């Protein structure tokens, strides 16, 4: 079937993208002006030419560019990610990533999920009830929500959660502390405890208490990170439903006697999902950038924070490796997008005559 | 003067025609004005016959079709009048009982089917709703329907998506889907306009065949007088939301009574052999925004006279089952041509009438 051939083609096309992205990363980072040797020598004696040279040698920076490039590419492709130089000297990058990535994945997962599961249904609801009071209310909330900047929202949310007892007391007459609500968490910010799932991913369901605590811990950060996406998805979802509703095949279906519920679920919503696919995936890209900020504010030791620290400290090797991982992620998300397209829209990959 | 007084009895033996539209008024309320897209339209369709509705774009014919199917949506609303199917009133949201009994084929086959489901899926959906068929039975029936509308290799194509069909094939599939509802009345809204001429002829032939085999009544809506001539038994000519002339097809082509009808006929290629140029009616259909106080065709009418600006013409009987809404046929008005009208008392459309007679 041509749909699946199309998907395979997209998969193959990812390879040159990966190569190009990684090469550019190498060029920008290693051909740039930053000299990590001076960081390493730091306080001692950066003027000592011999020491600088020795440090450069140690990092492999003395090699001719072509050799260095080849070595870098081979290392990346074979996932031989080496060791960090400065941040946690001597630690293999791979183990750092294994240590940091789960928290970011957890954060990204929930921020995408919350955005999709709140934004899309609200948008669809508004679109199905267009120009009603509830549509206006939803749309207005969505716009306001979307307009709030990440960092401001993060701070406000934290402020509210810290004062959760006082606020609920004033509103409902009962003090509910966010810290102890449903499950105890020791602090509002910080790392979610994910270690219980180590080597046993099923613990996600078998140990609901730990899962709940981990979700609760990540929730404020995930809401902040997903807020812009949520607003966008709502807006696009509303427009998509409105547009689909006026399509002629909807009239055909109505004339055919398709009942209201089937009309909405079968005929309108699936078509309305098509324009949402690129929105959701492109927002997944934003999350990679957004996680740097949000992880810093919420004190989560994730990939975003690691990248930030590595960049600040001039740990070029770690920066380059993380870039490579991000590129893989982005290419991967693109493939997921194509897969979703292929599943939802049969017209994908169809050559018009 | 209604057409229902005609002596022809319908097949069911009751006096009710299959579909009776009476004084239908469908308006669109915008912030600025109220557009009377359909304004007091009456006609009926009897079992097994083809009734044509013809007019330029903007004449309200498509809105008429949508009104009959209950597909008018905000800001549009059926303001008044009645639409009765088998004697039962449909306006006031009673369409659900007769869904499927009235099926529709739209102009644009590209958008008439949901792009994300297979053709078979959409036909089976209609079969399940209207004939209670499921599973393998529904599949077999869908294949049979596709074969009936002339789609080759139906067994394979039933699993294909609409975009894999060519335009003509897709329109056939749409017709198959309409047939799956087991309709008594098929509303065809410009079903061949988007197709090229050879395919158009094939689809018309198919509709003709189906009508004979299934004893379908067809309401055929088009801007194309040539198509009307080939398909319709009786014709309603619409202009600016109103029916301006209604007649059996032969009478309409032999002796059109309304200047607008004459204009339409004159603009069919081949009807005016002597002239090199194709005569067309100048100007555009006005958008009616208020109750009419004049003849809405007056601006473009080659025979307009003073009274046309002041009086809204009612239907006048021309022959049996033939009426026209034109003051020319009412004796009480002084037929003094206004300054802007043609200087000749001979109606310009006469040439067209003669041409029509020689066909
Ligand atoms: S009523 Fe007057 S303007 Fe209207 S069609 Fe007849 S002659 Fe023309």
UniProtKB/TrEMBL annotation, chain A:
Membrane-spanning intervals of the chain: 12-34, 72-98, 105-128, 143-162, 273-294, 314-336
GO biological process terms on file: transmembrane transport
InterPro entries hit by this protein: MetI-like (IPR000515), MetI-like_sf (IPR035906)
Keywords: Cell membrane, Membrane, Transmembrane, Transmembrane helix, Transport
Intracellular or extracellular location(s): Cell membrane
Entry's Gene Ontology cellular component terms: plasma membrane
Domain ABC transmembrane type-1: 101-337
Membrane topology: Multi-pass membrane protein
PROSITE patterns: ABC_TM1
Family per record: Belongs to the binding-protein-dependent transport system permease family.
PANTHER family: DIPEPTIDE TRANSPORT SYSTEM PERMEASE PROTEIN DPPB-RELATED
Protein name, UniProt field: Peptide/nickel transport system permease protein
Native source organism of the sequence: Halobaculum gomorrense
Automatic annotation (TrEMBL), chain B:
Single GO biological process annotation from the record: peptide transport
Primary location: membrane
Record's bilayer topology term: Peripheral membrane protein
Reactions the enzyme catalyzes: Ni(2+)(out) + ATP + H2O = Ni(2+)(in) + ADP + phosphate + H(+)
Subcellular location: Cell membrane
One GO term describing the cellular component: plasma membrane
InterPro entries with a match to the protein in the record: AAA+_ATPase, ABC_Ni/Peptide_Import, ABC_transporter-like_ATP-bd, ABC_transporter-like_CS, Oligopep_ABC_C, P-loop_NTPase
Residue span(s) of domain ABC transporter: 19-265
Keywords: ATP-binding, Cell membrane, Ion transport, Membrane, Nucleotide-binding, Translocase, Transport
Keyword Nucleotide-binding tagged: yes
Domain of life: Archaea
Signal peptide: none
Gene Ontology molecular function: ABC-type nickel transporter activity; ATP binding; ATP hydrolysis activity
EC number: 7.2.2.11
Coiled coil region boundaries: none
Cited SMART domains: AAA
Region: Disordered, residue numbers: 271-291, 337-359
Assembly description: The complex is composed of two ATP-binding proteins (NikD and NikE), two transmembrane proteins (NikB and NikC) and a solute-binding protein (NikA).
NCBIfam families to which the protein is assigned, alphabetical: oligo_HPY (TIGR01727)
Name of this protein: Nickel import system ATP-binding protein NikD
